[in-house]
Amino acid sequence: MATNRTFTMIKPDAVANGHIGAILNDIIAGGFKIIAMKYIQLSKETAGAFYAVHKERPFYGELVDFMTSGPIVAAILEKDNAVEDFRTLIGATDPSKAEAGTIRNKYAKSIDANAIHGSDSDENAAIEGSFFFSHFERF
Ligand code: RTP
Ligand code: MG
Asked: Where does ATP bind (predicted)?
């Protein structure tokens, strides 16, 4: 059964381009409730650990460099069918393929600087949420 939580990061490009407010509005308008949130800059070590599943991929080094290039907003979100519905709200990894109206279609410039992260499974949503937030930081 699908759990009702997912994890997201508003990535450094979207933060630098002034889209935090607009993206949070889209997330809330999409029916998601914010359970936890923080504004932080990742170290290479932290970003490398978060993306360890992609370690062998050719884009890993660039991904870690990009994700540590400026502050991000990390959050745990709640909604029925959260993981799948959030992936629909953000659109395809490559923004040129993301459907009109999706967050990546509106705010992302390239497959590397693609504005936002969304967990890809219930299991990863739980792992990623716990990576960033303790139980005392969830509401
Ligand atoms: P995310 O994890 O950020 O929500 O993105 P995703 O599931 O749609 O894509 P994923 O396969 O998990 O890849 C993580 C991030 O790596 C970059 N990427 N570059 N050049 C490439 O072929 C390529 N593929 C992936 C993207 O920035 C992607 O968000
Ligand atoms: Mg992914």
From this structure: 11, 59, 87, 93, 104, 114
- Report how many domains make up the chain: 1
Q: Which value does ipTM take for this structure? A: 0.95
Domain that holds residue 120: 5-137
Look at ligand 1, atom 1, and give the residue with the nearest C-alpha.
117
Q: What is the pLDDT of residue 3?
A: 77
Q: Whose CA is nearest to atom 4 of ligand 1?
A: 117
Tell me the torsion sign for CA atoms 125, 79, 102, 87: positive
Q: Are 7 and 125 contacting, i.e. CB atoms less than 8 angstroms apart?
A: yes
Known catalytic residue: 19? no
- Closest by CA position to 103, among listed 33, 40, 62, 93: 93
Gap between the Cα atoms of 137 and 59, Å rounded: 32
Contact (Cβ atoms closer than 8 angstroms) between residue 73 and residue 26 = no
